Automatic annotation (TrEMBL):
GO terms for biological process: carbohydrate metabolic process; pentose-phosphate shunt. Its cofactor is Zn(2+). InterPro entries: Ribul_P_3_epim, Ribul_P_3_epim-like. It comes from the Eukaryota. Belongs to the ribulose-phosphate 3-epimerase family. It comes from Allacma fusca. This is Ribulose-phosphate 3-epimerase.
Length: 227
């Protein structure tokens, strides 16, 4: 099945004291899912929130799809608590584990989809042996840890490689994505788009989401017509 286009705002740079209201605002603006950045102060030099916050947020937005971006050193430790808190997808970093198949199994047993992320310094070839285990591959387009960084264009060949070899795979990009580079992301083959600052700070977030969706939709259609 051809991948579908989805836009998932990251709430990292939103007013986190208002995380529920911000989430509702983004969903009402057309977000397809919410990308929730979990940082442990060890895998990355920053701290955010964990499963207790996710559990509370779930009660406020019962229908939303939660894509957990787990920037943590022990991803296996949080699988069950996140599943119980209401997470839908658990995206861990390849760099944080030696047991990709074990953790993927655990995620599925907890009723979630499996996402595997790679940092900018990790070659795409390292993810290849694990693709069959994953529902989604996340190509980081900044160093994980902070919102508001500049997009790394030199990560796009990783996306192109994956799209060429895995036409049905969900491929997500995350970090510095905005209207200036959405066409490049879409043409490379990304179909799941995470955007924080560019959506959160927009005067009309709905317009940014619609423009991004259109860009990805057109690129996916073009590939489909060319086949
Ligand atoms: O995972 C991360 C950062 O580590 C991202 O999800 C960013 O937080 C997205 O924010 P922008 O780069 O779009 O501002
Ligand atoms: Fe993220």
């Amino acid at each position: 099945m051809a991948p579908t286009c989805k836009i998932g705002p990251s709430v990292l740079n939103a007013d986190l004291s208002q995380i529920a209201a911000e989430s509702v605002r983004l969903l009402d603006s057309g977000a397809d899912y919410l990308h929730l950045d979990v940082m442990d102060g060890h895998f990355v030099p920053n701290l955010t929130f964990g499963h207790p916050v996710v559990k509370c947020l779930r009660t406020k937005v019962p229908e939303a799809f939660f894509d957990m971006h787990m920037m943590v050193s022990k991803p296996e430790q949080w699988v069950e608590p996140m599943g119980q808190a209401g997470a839908n997808q658990y995206t861990f970093h390849l760099e944080a584990t030696r047991d990709v198949s074990g953790i993927s199994r655990k995620i599925k047993e907890a009723g979630m989809k499996v996402g595997i992320a790679i940092k900018p310094g990790t070659p795409v070839s390292e993810i290849v042996p694990h693709i069959d285990l994953a529902d989604m591959i996340l190509i980081m387009t900044v160093e994980p840890g902070f919102g508001g960084q500049s997009f790394k264009t030199d990560m796009l060949p990783k996306v192109e490689f994956l799209r060429k070899n895995y036409p049905e795979l969900d491929i997500e990009v995350d970090g510095g994505v905005g209207l200036a580079n959405i066409d490049a992301c879409a043409e490379a083959g990304a179909n799941m788009i995470v955007a924080g600052t560019s959506i959160i700070t927009a005067s009309d977030p709905g317009k940014v989401i619609r423009t991004m969706k259109e860009s990805v939709f057109n690129a996916l259609n073009k590939v489909h017509l060319e086949r």
